[in-house]
Amino acid sequence: MKTTFTSAISIIIFMMFFAPGSKAQNLTYRDAASVSSTGLPKSSPSKIEETNMTGIEKINPKLLNRFNKNFHDATNVKWQQFGDKFLATFSTGEKTTRSLFYKNGKTIYTINYFTGNQLPQVVKRLVKDQYEDYIITTAAQVLQENREIWVVQLAGLFHYKTVRVENGEMEEVESFQKSN
To answer: What residue numbers bound the domain in which 103 lies?
Structure first.
């Protein structure tokens, strides 16, 4: 379990800094009610962009149905395949979300990305009580196996720090000195 969590934290940190520029098989979605080859009813929004259909048949209709049910307000959805798993990157309101699924539609984890201003007050207060001279730059909410973990990036005058918050407890997981 600890190895899974450590792996998830490593993935989050990697994705926060490097993943926006990564390239994998992108499958982009948008509303297209006439598409039925995905296994979705024609009346439900399937969010398929007709211009980039390459590989769309690899996504299990059960996964697409579950995704549309759980994230009905998702926009700008892009799919990437990693082996037998599928990563959906999308927007809901002002936040970006990444959710990794098994091909049968079961969610492995979901990561919601926030700015410091969007962080819930309970988490923000806990972090600011200990790091009052730091600015909260970004945060990621990890939802995995009935756990909610916050990974918060901080910037101070001389250091960058990353803290993890779970169940009201906070742990510093990284600290870097700023260069001049």
So the answer is: 2-177
